[in-house]
From TrEMBL:
Coiled coil: none
Taxonomic placement: Bacteria, Pseudomonadati, Bacteroidota, Bacteroidia, Bacteroidales
UniProtKB keywords: Signal
Source organism of the structure: Dysgonomonas gadei ATCC BAA-286
Name of the molecule in the record: Outer membrane lipoprotein carrier protein LolA
Length: 209
């Protein structure tokens, strides 16, 4: 009985702290204006990234690392270096995957998760978050970050994705973390570190040929 009491006590102590981390954003309109204003000056981004895939079925998360590249307009590359070499390139409506030296290029529409991920990242980086359609959106913030929680209303999208959590750094309005939730228990986190802006001068990183 004493142990149960202690557990309940810990829950009530911790809950206010958890809730206090992120509060409802007070001025969403001002936030959207700032995202748009900051995005005008950003033509490309490159950074390190860590991908953490959590599947409730397994005891341990699957962690991968690599380089992330973005270039206006809507060009994305995820160049994995560990635990294995793997490349994903999104350019216009083409998706290229290179694994074990074998290249496969398909229409992006055939991969719903990557298609929606491209749309979310591109919306943030182009400043067009308020123009995202087919989703319910909630806005939160703490001292250092903004959080946009995005849930699809389209049932065909819901079959693949239950929601996106996009964390943006208040210093430069860049995406610091992206969580893609497949369902209530399974999700993939992308953490972006060591970001460099406007360093890419051509589209070599985004070739799908």
């Amino acid at each position: 009985m004493k142990r149960i009491y202690i557990c309940y006590l810990l829950i009530f102590i911790c809950l206010p702290q958890i809730n206090a981390q992120m509060k409802k954003m007070k001025d969403v309109e001002a936030f959207n204006k700032r995202v748009l204003r900051e995005a005008v000056s950003i033509k490309s981004i490159e950074s390190d990234f860590t991908q953490i895939k959590h599947l409730d079925l397994f005891n341990e998360d699957i962690t991968s690392k690599g380089k992330f590249y973005y270039r206006y307009n809507d060009k994305i590359s995820l160049d994995y270096s560990s635990p294995t070499k793997y490349l994903i390139v999104i350019n216009a409506d083409k998706l290229k995957i290179v694994s074990d030296g074998k290249k496969n290029v398909v229409n992006l529409k055939s991969n719903k998760v990557m298609s929606e991920m491209r749309s979310m990242l591109a919306a943030c980086m182009s400043g067009n978050i308020s123009q995202i359609s087919g989703y319910n959106m909630e806005y939160f913030e703490d001292t250092n970050s903004y959080l946009i929680k995005i849930k699809p209303t389209n049932k065909s999208v819901q079959a693949y994705i239950s929601g996106f959590d996009i964390y943006m750094d208040k210093k430069d309005m860049s995406v610091s973390k992206l969580r893609i939730s497949e369902n209530a228990t399974d999700y993939t986190d992308y953490l972006f570190q060591n970001k460099k802006f406007n360093t890419l001068t051509d589209d070599k990183k985004f070739s799908v040929n």
